Amino acid sequence: MKKIYTLCLVSAFASVVLSDVVLFKSGDRLSGKIGEMKDGKMHFTSEVAGALVLKMEDIQSFSSDTTMTLMTTNGVVVQSVTSLAITGTVVVVQADGAESKMALDEIARINPAKPAWTGSIVGSFVEMRGNTESRTVAITADAHRRSEDSRVALGAGYYYGKQRALDTREKSTTDDNFFLEGKYDYFLTKKIYAYGTARYFKDRMLFLDRRITAGLGLGYQWAESDAWNVFTEAGLTSVMEKYTNPEETSDFLAARGAYHVLYKFSDDVEGFHNLEILPSLETASEFLVNADAGVRAKLVSQWFAEAKVQMLYDSQARAETEKMDTRYTVGLGWKF
């Protein structure tokens, strides 16, 4: 029986000794496990209160008996064990035993998450019956990977629609297009980055066999947090087009301006808006515009509903087609 009591005491003592500790400016202490810290917020799992998000501005110091990764505001990465120190600092003990003090405002990240792919797949289906019978299907997918100094974005989509008039029973295709796109950003500073982008687009309804765009430029990251993601871009893009009716090809160099806005209204609802404009540097009246805006609402687990409006404008559209295409979709998505 004594052995059991002794084992329980040793286990309890070990859990206390091995616990990370956060000391607040108010004098309170919190024991548990330090997770990731970024944007001035520390993720902390308390032994009593569970998962918490702590503001670094409220913290006086912290300690850990296990090795953690500290990233300074200058980009230096330190693998170390930390211990409590005077207000606004921690004692850093590195693998070779060397000790030094580090001010809390020098620490930009703690235990940064390893880069991982995230993204979503969205599908929609609309069927209408009345004066006409119509069916429209759409599927889009996107994937993103963000590291400390780079960002990769991939995307693809396919849209198809068909209708049949009830009086004549004549069938006709109303939508048939797809796209593939990729983009790479390399951050020169925390806010400024260089980018390379490429996109392939085909649309039978516009008699467009292919439109390939590829460009380089610079971007500025205005905000990148849990609530906001906002950036603007400017550069040059090469545009290569081939039409089938009439059969012709065109190549031109265009300037490129773009922006992206994503805002989380809550943990379950977010809105987004993207705009890209490509004005030709050779013909003043020739330009392309791609834009979308929408909202996503979480349903359960990784599933969400999406409502979106898309706009494609071509100032030099063929005579048989409209210059502007607008599409409204409502779909079901899965986030990974």
Question: What is the fold's blueprint, element by element?
Answer:
Layout: H1 2-17, E1 20-24, E2 29-38, E3 41-46, E4 50-55, E5 59-63, E6 68-72, E7 77-84, E8 89-94, E9 99-103, E10 107-110, E11 117-128, E12 132-146, E13 150-165, E14 171-187, E15 192-203, E16 208-224, E17 228-244, E18 247-264, E19 269-279, E20 287-300, E21 303-314, E22 324-335
Antiparallel strand pairs: 1-2, 1-5, 2-3, 3-4, 6-7, 6-10, 7-8, 8-9, 11-12, 11-22, 12-13, 13-14, 14-15, 15-16, 16-17, 17-18, 18-19, 19-20, 20-21, 21-22
Molecular structure report:
The chain is mostly beta strands. It folds into 2 domains: 109 residues, no CATH class; 219 residues, Beta Barrel (Porin), CATH 2.40.160.40. 5% of the residues lie in helices and 69% in strands. The chain contains 1 helix and 22 strands. The protein has a 12-stranded antiparallel beta barrel with strand order 11-12-13-14-15-16-17-18-19-20-21-22. It is elongated and about 80 Å long. The N terminus is likely disordered.
In short:
This protein folds into 2 domains: 2-110, no CATH class; 117-335, Beta Barrel (Porin), CATH 2.40.160.
Strand content: over 45%
CATH level-4 homologous superfamily of the largest domain: monomeric porin ompg
Tally of individual domains: 2
Using the alpha-carbon principal axes, give the shape. elongated
